[in-house]
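Pipeline run #58 for the internal structure catalog. This entry was flagged by the ingest filter as a single-chain record with no existing model, so it goes straight to prediction. Upstream metadata was stripped on purpose; only the residue string is passed forward. Reviewer on rotation: M.T. Logging verbosity set to normal.
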Amino acid sequence: MSAGLIIVLMSLAGCGFTLRGSDDGSLPIDRLTVTFANSLHPLQAPLSRYLSSYDVELVPRNASDFELLISNEAIEQQTVSLNTRAGAGQYELRLSVEAALHLNGTLMAGPELFEAQGNFFEDTANIGGSQSGREIALDDLRQELAQQIVIRLQAIEI
């Protein structure tokens, strides 16, 4: 390895630079109650997976000092482009939730709005396929929202 490359790598490491997603980090919380606005909240599974990957134990209400409140999700869908028959061809989806963190009933952070957006194509010849394309896009957006929430939790000083 050349001396110039070593100097560049050491400089980047010294300034705290890391590639996005490569910094494992940790959460300042080891036990957390997550309360969703409804019992069948679509963000429940991806958020639980992300929190578990950071060794956060998810516990029932009143079993932790920390409670994360998640609002109902809001979905906006907008036509981006038209197909050759002047029908909608591509849609933009915007998914959002609000989250707030409480410590022993006292608001610590939030409520904060988390948003993610993406696109999907509608195949008018295959309506079933279009619906599954929308669901796949929504699943991806939920993964992104869960990641955003966990990143925000990492930044909280307790």
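catalog note: The CA atoms of residues 26 and 54 lie 6 Å apart.
catalog note: Strands lie at 31-36, 57-58, 66-70, 74-82, 88-103, 106-121.
status: ready for reviewer M.T.
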